[in-house]
Amino acid sequence: xxxxxxxxxxxxxxxxxxxxxxxxxxxxxxxxxxxxxxxxxxxxxxxxxxxxxxxxxxxxxxxxxxxxxxxxxxxxxxxxxxxxxxxxxxxxxxxxxxxxxxxxxxxxxxxxxxxxxxxxxxxxxxxxxxxxxxxxxxxxxxxxxxxxxxxxxxxxxxxxxxxxxxxxxx
Amino acid sequence: xxxxxxxxxxxxxxxxxxxxxxxxxxxxxxxxxxxxxxxxxxxxxxxxxxxxxxxxxxxxxxxxxxxxxxxxxxxxxxxxxxxxxxxxxxxxxxxxxxxxxxxxxxxxxxxxxxxxxxxxxxxxxxxxxxxxxxxxxxxxxxxxxxxxxxxxxxxxxxxxxxxxxxxxxxxxxxxxxxxxxxxxxxxxxxxxxxxxxxxxxxxxxxxxxxxxxxxxxxxxxxxxxxxxxxxxxxxxxxxxxxxxxxxxxxxxxxxxxxxxxxxxxxxxxxxxxxxxxxxxxxxxxxxxxxxxxxxxxxxxxxxxxxxxxxxxxxxxxxxxxxxxxxxxxxxxxxxxxxxxxxxxxxxxxxxxxxxxxxxxxxxxxxxxxxxxxxxxxxxxxxxxxxxxxxxxxx
Lengths: 170, 394
Prior knowledge:
The complex is a heterodimer of chains A (170) and B (394). Chain A is mainly α. Chain A has helices at 29-37, 48-62, 67-75, 85-91, 99-102, 104-115, 133-150, 154-169, and strands at 12-16, 23-27.
């Protein structure tokens, strides 16, 4: 039997019991995987909030900055997750908690602009009232460990693994 | 075929116990996809947000609070790998407690859900549209009473939401605060001493809290005063949205009013800002209704009666028209112009005539044209007394 979507042989036979009547599909492995994992529908578009944010940021940055300065700023990257300021500016979404520290100079005025305030008032977590920056470093360490493994630098990977474990248990 | 016929009845009960909506049964190269029953059971419930009770419930439909939280040791969703997402999902799944009266949360793997089921959860306000439409490992935990839902891997790792009928924000805050504490005792949230809870979008940083009330404001729409109300709300940093949140239309004259800022004000203060403005809007809406009664009672009565008439007799009707007409009927009931219908019944019809609900209730996937016919049939059955439809029972 041939796959219903291509010329390959159908190796997966799917019985769909989702609607009123059961029906059968005969697909090759690739199309079966696609069929079973695809939720259907369009992915979410950028929300209006993100668009408004990007616009606000763009305006804020243009004031008093040359194109050169802007380009330089755009290339700044967060040492923990690797996102550049340009990535944030175009998506309106940050990459990791450390971005608030890495891009502090740019985000400070933006936060003031959005909220009219710059300091949190309100609930404080009971377990880590002093902040969670140490655990955030795990993002960087895991990223570095994956890179070390990819480069076959196992000694470095082992050091990183130990450090990760120290923080995870601590 | 013979294999399938034997397997299905045996494995369905097990699938139900797993608390998932889809279960794949694979034997060699044969895969059987079975839908389990929990979501279908939800479809028969009324759902908290349209229960139609609680303080000021003629105008205030529901009160909602959500908290955005992230785990400290993972990237935000936009930078998370598939592996990260899976690990976040696991960590949070294990951290979500049972409900306070000991019931298990219904845990739904949104990634594995079909399009109708995802839309169904959106219509019930249990997940956001964004959560329904995005991709990758993500889930929602729902308490059986539908007051609490916890989204995992939405825009933030964690979105906790509490929803009550009527004006009930204080009660909502007490509950969500306790749930937040219980989750936080198991995981480490991303938190900065000066900036508060850290979120993927800087518009949520600080408390990570969105407080909102859903209002039904047909008279303000009819008297064209609604824009004036919105402009004054924007001046005091409150946002106005439609029925299904950001970017959605104000269908059926429903409007959500919520806080715009999240940093620099305590949770109690943010709640107070919203709570304080609601009585004023309620008063405007009531004044507008009285004005309509006084100045043009015949016109208003005619409008309401025609709406009721169409809903009871139409043979095919769109979701949009249904919402529009139900809105008039709802106001008519509140003003005593219709006396054989109750508010909870109308609220229920608002929900059950939505596209995914209609399909869940009929148990089949329907295209738009068939849905419109089925919707009209559903409305006739529930709004014509002699048919004995359950929704018209007092």
